[in-house]
Amino acid sequence: MSKFNRVYRRLITEQPELNAYEIINLTPHTVKLNDGREFPPCGTVARISTSYTDIVEDGGIPFTTTTFGTPVGVPAPREGVLYIVSGILMSALPDRKDLIAPCTNHPQTVRENGQIVSVPCFTRNF
What pTM did the predictor assign? Predict the structure, then answer.
């Protein structure tokens, strides 16, 4: 555990107002913020299937339409709880204000050898 995480955990224990939300990671990966905070997977992975219509051309440009299936592994909303999910799952459920996704395309995302190491923030449906 990093020094930041130890200090942060001590602060949120001593000052619960600094921990406004319980955050549950429903992805299969640990999500790390650039400030050092880490959110390990909880063991349940939220998923959604996608399907696509046949490709059609309009003015010489190929298009398809994406259809989302039924989400799996997404708990009902709970007061004070945010759920980390994939960006595509969050986008498929725009009315769910409790879903957050790592902001992987932000310019401050840290990458090593092409792999994401940490993100500066989360994105959310508002």
Answer: 0.78
